[in-house]
Amino acid sequence: MSGARIPPAAGSGISLEEQHRIERISGELRTGVAELGDLGPAISIFGSARVAEDSWEYRSAQSLGKLMAEAGVSVITGGGPGVMEAGNRGARSGEGRSIGLNITLPHEQLANPYVDTDIAFRYFFTRKFMLIRYAMGFAIYPGGMGTIDELFELLTLVQTGKLQPCPMVLVGHDYWSGLYNWLARECVTRGYIEPADLDLLEVVPDEEVAAEVLLDKIRR
Protein backbone atom coordinates (compact mmCIF):
# COMPACT_ATOMS: atom_id res chain seq x y z
CA MET A 1 0.00 0.00 0.00
CA SER A 2 1.35 3.41 -0.95
CA GLY A 3 2.74 5.33 2.01
CA ALA A 4 2.60 2.32 4.38
CA ARG A 5 5.59 1.79 6.61
CA ILE A 6 7.33 -1.56 6.39
CA PRO A 7 8.49 -2.83 9.77
CA PRO A 8 12.23 -3.39 10.05
CA ALA A 9 13.31 -6.94 9.32
CA ALA A 10 14.39 -9.02 12.27
CA GLY A 11 18.11 -8.73 12.81
CA SER A 12 18.41 -5.82 10.36
CA GLY A 13 19.90 -3.55 13.00
CA ILE A 14 17.57 -0.72 11.93
CA SER A 15 15.44 0.61 14.77
CA LEU A 16 11.95 1.98 14.20
CA GLU A 17 13.27 5.46 15.00
CA GLU A 18 16.01 5.12 12.38
CA GLN A 19 13.53 3.82 9.82
CA HIS A 20 11.32 6.85 10.42
CA ARG A 21 14.35 9.08 9.92
CA ILE A 22 15.16 7.34 6.63
CA GLU A 23 11.57 7.85 5.50
CA ARG A 24 11.71 11.56 6.36
CA ILE A 25 14.96 11.96 4.42
CA SER A 26 13.51 10.09 1.45
CA GLY A 27 10.38 12.24 1.61
CA GLU A 28 12.39 15.46 1.55
CA LEU A 29 14.32 14.27 -1.49
CA ARG A 30 11.15 13.23 -3.32
CA THR A 31 9.51 16.58 -2.61
CA GLY A 32 12.55 18.50 -3.84
CA VAL A 33 12.84 16.48 -7.04
CA ALA A 34 9.11 16.80 -7.74
CA GLU A 35 9.22 20.60 -7.31
CA LEU A 36 12.50 21.28 -9.15
CA GLY A 37 12.81 18.48 -11.68
CA ASP A 38 11.69 20.71 -14.57
CA LEU A 39 13.50 23.84 -13.42
CA GLY A 40 15.82 24.56 -16.36
CA PRO A 41 18.82 26.93 -16.07
CA ALA A 42 19.33 28.15 -12.51
CA ILE A 43 21.95 29.48 -10.13
CA SER A 44 22.20 29.31 -6.36
CA ILE A 45 23.08 32.38 -4.33
CA PHE A 46 24.71 31.92 -0.93
CA GLY A 47 25.56 34.52 1.70
CA SER A 48 24.87 35.82 5.17
CA ALA A 49 21.37 35.90 6.60
CA ARG A 50 22.45 38.79 8.84
CA VAL A 51 23.07 41.59 6.35
CA ALA A 52 20.74 44.59 6.38
CA GLU A 53 18.64 45.82 3.49
CA ASP A 54 20.86 48.89 3.06
CA SER A 55 24.14 46.89 2.90
CA TRP A 56 26.08 46.52 -0.32
CA GLU A 57 25.74 42.74 -0.07
CA TYR A 58 21.95 42.98 -0.06
CA ARG A 59 21.80 45.51 -2.88
CA SER A 60 24.29 43.55 -4.96
CA ALA A 61 22.55 40.19 -4.47
CA GLN A 62 19.23 41.79 -5.35
CA SER A 63 20.69 43.21 -8.55
CA LEU A 64 22.28 39.86 -9.41
CA GLY A 65 18.98 38.05 -8.91
CA LYS A 66 17.29 40.48 -11.27
CA LEU A 67 20.04 40.21 -13.89
CA MET A 68 19.82 36.42 -13.87
CA ALA A 69 16.02 36.40 -14.02
CA GLU A 70 16.02 38.81 -16.97
CA ALA A 71 18.41 36.41 -18.73
CA GLY A 72 16.01 33.50 -18.20
CA VAL A 73 17.90 31.92 -15.31
CA SER A 74 16.04 30.95 -12.13
CA VAL A 75 17.40 31.88 -8.72
CA ILE A 76 17.68 29.42 -5.83
CA THR A 77 18.52 30.53 -2.30
CA GLY A 78 18.24 29.14 1.21
CA GLY A 79 14.94 30.99 1.49
CA GLY A 80 15.77 33.06 4.56
CA PRO A 81 16.65 36.72 5.20
CA GLY A 82 19.69 38.78 4.25
CA VAL A 83 21.47 37.81 1.04
CA MET A 84 18.94 35.04 0.46
CA GLU A 85 16.03 37.45 0.59
CA ALA A 86 17.88 39.86 -1.69
CA GLY A 87 18.48 37.20 -4.36
CA ASN A 88 14.83 36.10 -4.29
CA ARG A 89 13.66 39.69 -4.35
CA GLY A 90 15.75 40.44 -7.42
CA ALA A 91 14.54 37.32 -9.20
CA ARG A 92 10.93 38.26 -8.62
CA SER A 93 11.44 41.83 -9.81
CA GLY A 94 13.08 40.42 -12.95
CA GLU A 95 9.99 38.25 -13.48
CA GLY A 96 11.97 35.05 -13.05
CA ARG A 97 11.42 32.01 -10.89
CA SER A 98 12.36 32.66 -7.27
CA ILE A 99 13.01 29.52 -5.21
CA GLY A 100 13.66 29.29 -1.48
CA LEU A 101 14.88 26.08 0.16
CA ASN A 102 14.23 26.85 3.79
CA ILE A 103 15.58 24.98 6.83
CA THR A 104 13.67 24.22 10.00
CA LEU A 105 15.73 25.48 12.94
CA PRO A 106 15.19 25.61 16.73
CA HIS A 107 14.60 29.34 16.33
CA GLU A 108 12.26 29.13 13.36
CA GLN A 109 13.57 30.62 10.13
CA LEU A 110 10.63 31.82 8.08
CA ALA A 111 10.69 31.99 4.31
CA ASN A 112 11.27 35.49 3.03
CA PRO A 113 8.32 37.18 1.28
CA TYR A 114 9.95 37.08 -2.18
CA VAL A 115 9.94 33.31 -2.58
CA ASP A 116 7.58 31.85 -5.19
CA THR A 117 8.50 28.19 -4.68
CA ASP A 118 9.02 27.47 -0.99
CA ILE A 119 10.34 24.05 0.09
CA ALA A 120 11.07 23.41 3.76
CA PHE A 121 13.74 20.96 4.90
CA ARG A 122 14.46 19.37 8.25
CA TYR A 123 17.92 18.14 7.31
CA PHE A 124 20.77 20.35 6.19
CA PHE A 125 22.27 17.75 3.88
CA THR A 126 19.07 17.17 1.89
CA ARG A 127 18.66 20.93 1.55
CA LYS A 128 22.27 21.32 0.39
CA PHE A 129 21.78 18.52 -2.11
CA MET A 130 18.91 20.46 -3.68
CA LEU A 131 20.79 23.78 -3.59
CA ILE A 132 23.56 22.10 -5.58
CA ARG A 133 21.70 19.54 -7.72
CA TYR A 134 19.61 21.99 -9.73
CA ALA A 135 22.06 24.87 -10.06
CA MET A 136 24.40 25.39 -13.00
CA GLY A 137 26.45 28.05 -11.23
CA PHE A 138 26.96 29.61 -7.83
CA ALA A 139 27.37 33.12 -6.47
CA ILE A 140 28.82 33.23 -2.98
CA TYR A 141 28.52 36.47 -1.04
CA PRO A 142 30.24 37.23 2.27
CA GLY A 143 28.86 35.12 5.08
CA GLY A 144 29.60 33.08 8.15
CA MET A 145 29.87 29.39 8.98
CA GLY A 146 27.00 28.25 6.77
CA THR A 147 28.22 30.15 3.73
CA ILE A 148 31.79 28.93 4.15
CA ASP A 149 30.53 25.37 4.63
CA GLU A 150 28.57 25.57 1.39
CA LEU A 151 31.56 26.98 -0.48
CA PHE A 152 33.97 24.28 0.63
CA GLU A 153 31.48 21.50 0.08
CA LEU A 154 31.06 22.70 -3.50
CA LEU A 155 34.82 22.78 -3.98
CA THR A 156 35.19 19.29 -2.53
CA LEU A 157 32.47 17.86 -4.76
CA VAL A 158 34.05 19.29 -7.92
CA GLN A 159 37.61 18.43 -6.87
CA THR A 160 36.65 14.80 -6.24
CA GLY A 161 34.62 14.48 -9.46
CA LYS A 162 31.26 14.09 -7.72
CA LEU A 163 30.03 17.31 -9.37
CA GLN A 164 30.79 18.56 -12.85
CA PRO A 165 32.92 21.73 -12.98
CA CYS A 166 30.66 24.76 -12.77
CA PRO A 167 31.15 28.51 -12.33
CA MET A 168 31.68 29.62 -8.74
CA VAL A 169 32.06 33.34 -8.18
CA LEU A 170 33.04 34.87 -4.86
CA VAL A 171 31.46 38.32 -4.85
CA GLY A 172 33.46 40.96 -2.99
CA HIS A 173 37.23 41.40 -3.26
CA ASP A 174 37.59 42.83 0.24
CA TYR A 175 36.01 39.82 1.88
CA TRP A 176 37.20 36.90 -0.26
CA SER A 177 40.69 37.86 -1.46
CA GLY A 178 42.25 37.00 1.89
CA LEU A 179 40.82 33.48 1.81
CA TYR A 180 41.82 32.97 -1.81
CA ASN A 181 45.36 34.17 -1.14
CA TRP A 182 45.60 31.95 1.95
CA LEU A 183 44.61 28.91 -0.10
CA ALA A 184 47.29 29.79 -2.65
CA ARG A 185 49.95 30.58 -0.06
CA GLU A 186 49.34 27.74 2.37
CA CYS A 187 47.37 24.91 0.77
CA VAL A 188 49.00 25.01 -2.67
CA THR A 189 52.50 25.64 -1.32
CA ARG A 190 52.23 22.71 1.10
CA GLY A 191 50.88 20.44 -1.64
CA TYR A 192 47.48 19.95 0.02
CA ILE A 193 45.68 21.09 -3.13
CA GLU A 194 46.76 21.54 -6.73
CA PRO A 195 47.19 24.98 -8.30
CA ALA A 196 44.42 24.04 -10.74
CA ASP A 197 42.01 23.67 -7.83
CA LEU A 198 42.06 27.43 -7.41
CA ASP A 199 40.85 27.78 -10.99
CA LEU A 200 37.48 26.52 -9.74
CA LEU A 201 36.97 29.91 -8.07
CA GLU A 202 36.80 33.44 -9.41
CA VAL A 203 36.81 36.43 -7.09
CA VAL A 204 34.77 39.26 -8.63
CA PRO A 205 34.11 42.84 -7.49
CA ASP A 206 30.37 43.11 -8.06
CA GLU A 207 27.17 41.60 -9.40
CA GLU A 208 27.70 42.80 -12.96
CA VAL A 209 30.94 40.86 -13.34
CA ALA A 210 29.39 37.92 -11.47
CA ALA A 211 26.49 37.84 -13.94
CA GLU A 212 28.87 37.99 -16.91
CA VAL A 213 30.93 35.06 -15.63
CA LEU A 214 27.92 32.95 -14.70
CA LEU A 215 25.99 33.55 -17.90
CA ASP A 216 29.04 33.02 -20.10
CA LYS A 217 29.74 29.62 -18.63
CA ILE A 218 26.10 28.55 -18.31
CA ARG A 219 25.47 29.27 -22.00
CA ARG A 220 28.46 27.30 -23.27
UniProtKB/TrEMBL annotation:
Catalytic activity: AMP + H2O = D-ribose 5-phosphate + adenine
Record's GO cellular component terms: cytosol
Enzyme Commission number(s) from the entry: 3.2.2.n1
Sorted UniProt keywords: Cytokinin biosynthesis, Hydrolase
GO biological process annotation, one example: cytokinin biosynthetic process
Key word RNA-binding present: no
Xref: Gene3D superfamilies: 3.40.50.450
Matches recorded under SUPFAM superfamilies: MCP/YpsA-like (SSF102405)
Pfam families according to UniProt: Lysine_decarbox (PF03641)
Domain of life: Bacteria
InterPro entries linked to this entry: LOG, LOG_fam, LOG_family_nucleotidases
Molecular function (Gene Ontology), one example: AMP nucleosidase activity
Entry similarity comment: Belongs to the LOG family.
Name the record gives this protein: Cytokinin riboside 5'-monophosphate phosphoribohydrolase
Organism this protein belongs to: Congregibacter litoralis KT71
